[in-house]
Specification:
This protein is of the alpha+beta class. Helices cover 43% and strands 25% of the residues.
Amino acid sequence: MQLSELFVQPSYRKYFSESSDPFVYLTAIPAGRTLLSQGTETSSLYYLARGRCRVYAVTAAGKQIIVNTLQAPCLIGEIELISGDHPFRVETLEECELAVLPYSPCKDLLLEDPRFLKQVAWELADKERKNALRMLQMASAPLVHRLAVLLLENAQQGRVRLKKTLIAQSLGVSYRHLEKVMKDLCEAGILVQNGKDYTLQEPEKLQELADAVRIF
């Protein structure tokens, strides 16, 4: 993608006016790279033009959990830009193409731009609503449905490469309980285990399980 192509996309222009255009540059980041680190200051805002990213948090007890999966097009780092907090680690889930808006000199331009502030405010309010609904969903749904959502969101080319300890911590269940449910999915032919990885053998059935608990 060229900058000239990016600048005419409605999904980009809903955030950014032309005042920041001279300072924007594009970059491609391979899978598995960290864009934002929890507790560490950043120097840029990102617009995810292509690809997916995974959002992590580490609890006070030292447990790592998966918070969310981001899908292009979207912003990365708007909370950090506006609040100065750095609550999450963001890692590329696959190769991603990003527009980078360096804080110097874009930060002041963005924080004074009504278009940017209005769109970000709307999206943060929408995220708050969705997060509340997601918490209700995850609190009441059986593990197999919640697991289906996580597997689909984190699959790479039909395979999931996540440690089961991370999955268990992210879903708030015991390792033993998770093992049993994943074994059941394998016996049903929905998953196929390949060493430490799992292939989504019948993703449509996983989708049915995930859709059964989606409330937005």
